[in-house]
Amino acid sequence: MKNRIKEFIGLTVILLLFTACNPFKPQIRPSPAGELPETFSLYSKEAEPLGRWWEEFNDPELTGLIEEALADNLTLKEAWSRLNQARTVAVQVGAALYPDLTGTGGAFYERRRSDNGFSKTESNDDYSLGLISSYELDLWGRIRSDREAALLDVTAAREEVNTAAMTLASEVARRWISIVSQGMQKRLLEHQLQVNRTYLELIELRFRMSMVSALDVYQQKQIVEDIRAEIPLVEAEEQVLRHELALLLGKSPQTELNIGRVGLPEPAEIPATGLPADLLSSRPDLRRAGMRLQAAEWQVAAARANRLPAISLTAGAQYGRGDMDVLFDNWLLSLAGNLTAPIFDGNRRAAEVDRRQAIVDENLSAYRQAVLTAIKEVENALVNESKQREHIRGLERVEVAARKALEEAGVRYRNGLTDYLPVLTQLLAVQRLERDLIRQRANLFNARVSLYRALGGTWTESLTP
Predict the structure, then answer these.
(1) 49 — phi, psi (to 5°)?
(2) pLDDT digits over 304-363, tens only?
(3) C-beta contacts of 297-300 below 8 A and 24+ residues apart
(4) How many CB atoms lie within 10 A of CB 411?
(5) 112 and 248: one domain?
(6) What's residue 108's pLDDT?
(7) Can you give the CATH number for the domain in which 46 is found?
């Protein structure tokens, strides 16, 4: 018996050494991202990885809101929970690499009583304890391939957290700047309302002096009412934005947010963007797509290994009540090995290999699509910010010209050289330009946020749940 056990253990050691090989290990593919452009169209000089980009605006209010969102946002907490799920799945999959050990126990009790002229009672009891272990030899690397795929899923889940955090920071910044700009719009409308009321008082005075017609009065009243009607819409938009921001912070929409900034921050010069290839390491969504691709390749390896024979070992040890006095000398041992090999399965395992390979092809296309989309987002952000700056400079020149035209129209009107229509036209133009400039400056800020979001960064790696 002992010799057979030694032979079995020796064979097991040899098989365990053999399992160190993995004939279906995925091969390293050259450049899965495909061909990339060498540079971006604009500002493609060498750049360092982006840190906490919102700190460049030097606004404690914005910094506090983003940090609060990163700590309390519920969608981000969902991503953290999915990461924990992936980790536990990896532990479960990797457990198959080690033998399992199960304890068994049993008890038996019997009592008999007979009565054939006299009473007699008989009792019998017994119990047993044992251990059972089983282990599958990973001859072809199937279990290790499954574990590698699960570990890559864990890394991909962490990159999903990083992606969610980057998106969250940009969305908080967008809501904040929109709230600030809506507050500016409201104050500007109130100022314009006061200016138009002053114009109306002057025109009414001239009307009472029979210097102008009633049409001039009605036209100016129309402007006053138009401005008055715009204010509630701006207030409603600001309140909706506050609700959205509160939700991003993980709070009830009715929560009062202390946002006291009265002006828009001015973005610095467009930062260096680096090269398109840098996005492969700086964008967490691209890193996640790459991990998904690698995990799919390991799953193909597991499916291929599953088509080959498998060897499983079982061992057991048991003793009963009568063995207690010789517990360490009288174990009842059993060792067994089973070989299973698929003979006919209706092509099920081969079809699984094909399915897994199709998933690899799908993930490869998705990865390349994600890379191209990332490059497009950077290009779009660069073009939008560059052209937005040109547009704002143009609007500022138009505003200067419109104010001069309004001043000249006012002089001609007061001197009786023209009617009120030229003044009305230029007044509307100036006030429209004032409101439009606020919107366009907010758009400039949003373009910068889009650029930071598109470039990615490494600041999310320090995040903890």
Answers:
(1) -60, 140
(2) 888 888 787 787 777 665 554 444 444 555 666 676 677 777 888 889 899 999 999 999
(3) 297/26, 297/360, 298/26, 298/145, 298/146, 298/148, 298/149, 298/152, 299/145, 299/146, 299/149, 299/356, 299/359, 300/24, 300/26, 300/353, 300/356, 300/357, 300/359, 300/360
(4) 12
(5) no
(6) 64
(7) 1.20.1600.10
